[in-house]
Amino acid sequence: MPANKKKRKSPKDKDVELIRSINAGDLDLYYDLVKRYEQKLYNFGLRMCGDSQDAEDLVQDTFLNVFKYLQGFRYETKFKNWLYRVATSACIKKRRKSKFAPDRELSLEEFLPQNEAEIPKELPSWAMMPLDKLLNRELQEIIQQAILDLPEKYRLIMVLRDMEGFTTAETAEMLNITPANVKIRLHRGRLYLRDKLKDYFNND
Amino acid sequence: MTEKDHHHHDHACLEMFKMLSDYIDNDLDELTCKDIERHAAECVACKACLETLKQTINLCKGSTTRSVPDDVSRRLKATIQGLLENQPRL
Description:
The complex is a heterodimer.
Chain A: H1 2-9, H2 16-23, H3 30-49, H4 52-69, H5 79-97, H6 125-128, H7 131-134, H8 137-149, H9 152-163, H10 168-175, H11 179-202
Chain B: H1 3-24, H2 30-42, H3 44-62, H4 70-85
């Protein structure tokens, strides 16, 4: 679609001006760029690693790498997407070094009701509650832990799509996989988390 | 419900189950959306599945973010300053 192509070629990226100045020699402005994304990346690190030291390492490694490659930044990509691509690579590298969270495939079948008793006969009350009544600290921790328990390839997609707010196309580009693959993993990741929430509310 | 009806019902449930995320993300054509809505209106199990999945996504999107602790921020600043000080200037 020509309209989309045009939009992609000239994204309204508030960072572009700053990056051009840094690349033109005003290096001290780099810290402004860091400040702009420090909190976002730190939270991304917490969601992906679950540990504040790992999150800090991720932020440091990412900003060091971004600086190293900033001269080669292609302005047709949104800086934020490129930054997360660098952060994601740092994250995957870090996870490979640890034996935490073993990788496994999630199949659609494992989320289907296994017997008659598991088939809901009515709408569960938690599904209809307003978010501000539902989302307390305890539930935040349940969600965070369930995300951490997800195998990495599903966790990455869940975090990027449903927590960081990237689109399917952006996520696919960042991870170098097809949009169809993003959708498959996202659906299974969501079903996994939904099962954990169901268990939590059933035992509440 | 006849045996045939029941089989058909299960098939429709399974098809809907596979497409729930695409439906929620607005990634389906209008006709398929209408099929899903019609099915959800008459099948409580699928309606429950759809609504709990929607709420799961809402909870993810609504999860709060933490501020960066001051010491983490200070160390990052020091790292970046160290990096910049070691760069050749134009």
